[in-house]
Amino acid sequence: MKKIFLLPLVALLIIAAASPGAWAQEKKASGPERFEKEIAAYEAQDRDSPPPKGQILFTGASTIRRWTTLAQDFPEHKVINRGFGGSQIADATHFADRIIFPYAPRAIFIRSGGNDLNAGKSVEQVFNDFEKFVEKVHGNLPNTTIYFISLSPSIARWKQHDKEKELNALIKDHIEGKPHLKYIETYDVVLGPDGQPRANLFVEDKLHFNAEGNRLLAERIRPHLSN
Description:
Blueprint: H1 2-18, H2 21-28, H3 36-48, E1 56-60, H4 62-65, H5 70-73, E2 79-83, H6 89-94, H7 96-99, E3 107-111, H8 114-118, H9 123-140, E4 145-149, H10 161-175, E5 181-184, H11 211-221
Parallel strand pairs: 1-2, 1-3, 3-4, 4-5
Helix pairs in contact: 9-10
């Protein structure tokens, strides 16, 4: 009997010995490199059909990535969607050379930070990451206006809504009065009369917006597109 139970362990050790890089590769996948395929797909798309420069770019996490009707919601403008789900602000900074700077956008709308808090980063750490994002973008595109689309609470992550509100406030205060930096308030867009996120604005996972949620988000953003 003991030999039978030892077989799975022996097999695992053999696989590990034959593939010493497998464990390191798994560990490496926790960094920005985990988005490499998605970023490379955007680059391939650009080679096939290069977007015009000087347009409006949206980037950030899954709220942007899953916003498949983005172009239809703003038909008067040429918009580029370069969101990648699961990403943090630091990831947008890391890939700016590849999914921001080539387009030389006149405006960047970023919605990110929720995954950062969910991963255990403090509000101060996420705020510092936003500052680094702005520093890198304006170091290359000094006249590009960056719009921070504020975080709004979800049902699935209601436990971090106070941190989201605190991060919004920090960024809003930091942005106020600075050139080429704007803040868009969306925290309250999801709240019902009871102060809780409305279930009818989310898909089944209770985290991501459905079509109605995106419609309300678009209403908040639309007035800023022509600025």
